[in-house]
């Protein structure tokens, strides 16, 4: 059972990709929805809004506990910001600080590629994939510092945009907005390798 945080963003597209690969998907809105999950996708959206919704629905502790007991996490765009140890570019009204789970040893820069009008699509060479992945960047962050235990799986214009540390995967782009399910397959392989063999 794989969960998709369903507070904001393209969570339905993530669930559809996972289910197309044979996984049982569950939309997560309440603490009880986290029970029994092997992993959780934190989708794109607006990271400041998502932090407030995580507060409102009391989801910080259940998601942290999921990871602590061996569950895998995958953050895409805003979801990647929520996983980072350090966040740059938080709104001034929040004192320049943004709460995160801190399970990925990176510093992430919010909105590093500009505003919504600066969105773009580009092919990325991804380590482990046999052909480029068409990546959709929308108000995307970048990983400006990557810890020694973090593997960089793809970069764009000199910036890390897809990284992994143990049971944590993070992408600055939106893989759910393409028809390519290879990164969703890679995430499932982090949970149950035999699912996709």
How would the blueprint of this fold be written?
Elements (H helix, E strand, L loop, with lengths): L1 E4 L5 H10 L4 E4 L10 E4 L4 H10 L3 H9 L3 E5 L1 H6 E5 L15 E6 L10 E5 L8 E5 L4 E5 L4 E6 L2 E7 L2 E4 L10 H10 L6
Parallel strand pairs: 1-2, 1-3, 3-4, 4-12, 5-6
Antiparallel strand pairs: 6-9, 7-8, 10-11, 11-12
What key attributes describe this structure?
197 residues, alpha/beta, Rossmann fold, seven-stranded mixed β-sheet, three-stranded mixed β-sheet, Pyridoxal 5'-phosphate synthase subunit PdxT
Task: Summarize the structure in words.
With 197 residues, the chain is α/β, with parallel strands linked by helices. The chain has a single domain, classed as Class I glutamine amidotransferase (GATase) domain (Rossmann fold). Helices cover 23% and strands 30% of the residues. It has five helices and twelve strands. The strands form three sheets. It has a seven-stranded mixed sheet with strand order 2-1-3-4-12-11-10, sandwiched between helices. Strands 5-6-9 form a three-stranded mixed sheet. Strand 10 and strand 11 form a beta hairpin. The longest helix has 10 residues, at 11-20. The chain is globular and about 40 Å long. The protein starts with a strand and ends in a 6-residue tail after the last helix. The mean pLDDT is 90. It catalyses: L-glutamine + H2O = L-glutamate + NH4(+); aldehydo-D-ribose 5-phosphate + D-glyceraldehyde 3-phosphate + L-glutamine = pyridoxal 5'-phosphate + L-glutamate + phosphate + 3 H2O + H(+). Pfam families: SNO. In the presence of PdxS, forms a dodecamer of heterodimers. Only shows activity in the heterodimer.
